[in-house]
Automatic annotation (TrEMBL):
Transmembrane spans: none
Residues annotated as site: Part of a proton relay during catalysis: 55, 118
Lineage, uppermost ranks: Bacteria, Bacillati, Actinomycetota, Actinomycetes, Kitasatosporales
InterPro entries given in the database record: Aldolase_TIM, DapA, DapA-like, Schiff_base-form_aldolases_AS, Schiff_base-form_aldolases_CS
Gene source species: Streptomyces tubercidicus
Catalytic activity: L-aspartate 4-semialdehyde + pyruvate = (2S,4S)-4-hydroxy-2,3,4,5-tetrahydrodipicolinate + H2O + H(+)
Protein name: 4-hydroxy-tetrahydrodipicolinate synthase
Job of this protein: Catalyzes the condensation of (S)-aspartate-beta-semialdehyde [(S)-ASA] and pyruvate to 4-hydroxy-tetrahydrodipicolinate (HTPA).
MF (Gene Ontology): 4-hydroxy-tetrahydrodipicolinate synthase activity
GO biological process: diaminopimelate biosynthetic process; lysine biosynthetic process via diaminopimelate
Length: 316
């Protein structure tokens, strides 16, 4: 008897790029570039969703006005054919509520809300913050669990409680705790999205809804190919395609430089809108950019061969 994989409803799309925020050469917001990049990711890259003003989108160094301008530009460009989720998380509840309401007015389809950072609130305080933001608009909320950056993890108990809120609909999972993710998936209807590219297939196999991918900025089709194969029932090909992504995932998010820096370096290399990063980040140097370009070529070559080549240890 065939076993059916649990498939949560995808309120934030299925293949979402954690889109960089393009800047002009002098560091200003590049709305034209943002529209061109969004169109490329959706129409050419196969992404059915974009997440704006997240970590990769340099949310710590863009103003509230820039966030709204970026959101309006991208909604205008692709909002009729992709789910647009706006990052609104800050360490200040009142500020986050204001950003959430602004994003709703600007046409966002959903909100990404990171746990408050630096102040290290208790789980009760985190829950109150997230529920307050979810109460502020009519939009579905994706919780952003990334303790490596915020210093505060969402516990399984907290996630189970928050899942009862009618507008808390999903989780961007960068917690590196598959046991916790599995416990919450088994007990709730929260739509889980892999926020770490190396976990796209593992989390989907547990019942996740999709991914919010940094690597998709440069290789959206290769990212989508993993989920396409799995959802078609071809788990062996899905595994080969996930493994083909490893060189690029390691180069982009492996820690040598933040994903914002590496993704922008690759997009600049490809002649796509990106521009400089804002301080305190520093642009990739020529050596790192060369290694990133090599990793991209390797991944694309391996992805092209993934349907026929069978890596050791993976059943054909």
């Amino acid at each position: 008897m065939q076993t059916m994989t649990r498939t949560p409803a995808p309120p934030f799309g299925r293949v979402a790029a954690a889109m960089i925020t393009p800047f002009t050469a002098d560091g200003a917001l590049d709305t034209d570039g943002a529209q061109r990049l969004a169109t490329r990711l959706v129409d050419d890259g196969g992404c059915d969703a974009l997440v704006l003003s997240g970590t990769t989108g340099e949310s710590p160094t863009t103003s509230d006005a820039e966030k709204e301008t970026l959101l309006r530009a991208v909604v205008e460009a692709v909002g009729d054919r992709a789910r647009i989720t706006a990052g609104v998380g800050t360490s200040d509840t009142r500020h986050t509520v204001a950003l959430a309401r602004g994003a709703e007015r600007a046409g966002a389809h959903g909100l990404l809300v990171v746990t408050p950072y630096y102040s290290r609130p208790t789980q009760e305080a985190v829950s109150h913050h997230l529920r307050t933001v979810a109460d502020a608009t009519g939009l579905p909320v994706m919780l952003y669990d990334i303790p490596g950056r915020t210093g505060t993890a969402l516990t399984a108990r907290t996630l189970l409680r928050l899942a009862a809120h009618p507008r808390i609909a999903g989780v961007k999972d960068c917690g590196y705790d598959l046991l916790k993710s599995a416990k919450v998936l088994a007990a709730t209807d929260l739509a889980y999205y892999a926020g770490c590219d190396e976990q796209i297939l593992p989390l989907r196999a547990l019942g996740g809804a999709g991914c919010v991918s940094t690597v998709a900025n440069a290789a959206p089709r290769a990212v989508r190919a993993v989920l396409d194969a799995y959802d078609a029932g071809d788990t062996a090909t899905a595994a080969r395609r996930q493994l083909a992504l490893v060189p690029l995932i390691e180069a982009v998010t492996g820690g040598e430089a933040p994903g914002t820096v590496t993704a922008k370096a690759l997009l600049d290399h490809l002649g796509l809108p990106a521009g400089p990063v804002r301080g305190p980040l520093l642009a990739a140097d020529a050596e790192l950019t060369s290694r990133l370009a090599d990793a991209l070529r390797t991944t694309l070559d391996r992805t092209a061969d993934a349907d026929t080549a069978v890596p050791a240890g993976v059943p054909g």
